[in-house]
């Protein structure tokens, strides 16, 4: 006997968490890499490390 299950649906909170933790840093990284002074500051502050605010 095969049972069908519905696919999981992400909540608004889950979607926002993904956006904040994955999408926004990726987009910001692209912008920062195009600006040498901002990239130097980001490296000095280690903004690519987990837990950076």
Automatic annotation (TrEMBL):
Domain of life: Bacteria
Protein name: Uncharacterized protein
Organism: Amycolatopsis umgeniensis
Upper classification of the organism: Bacteria, Bacillati, Actinomycetota, Actinomycetes, Pseudonocardiales
């Amino acid at each position: 006997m095969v049972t069908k299950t519905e696919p999981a649906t992400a909540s608004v909170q889950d979607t926002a968490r993904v956006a904040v933790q994955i999408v926004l840093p990726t987009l910001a990284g692209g912008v920062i890499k195009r600006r040498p002074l901002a990239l130097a500051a980001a490296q000095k502050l280690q903004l690519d490390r987990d837990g950076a605010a």
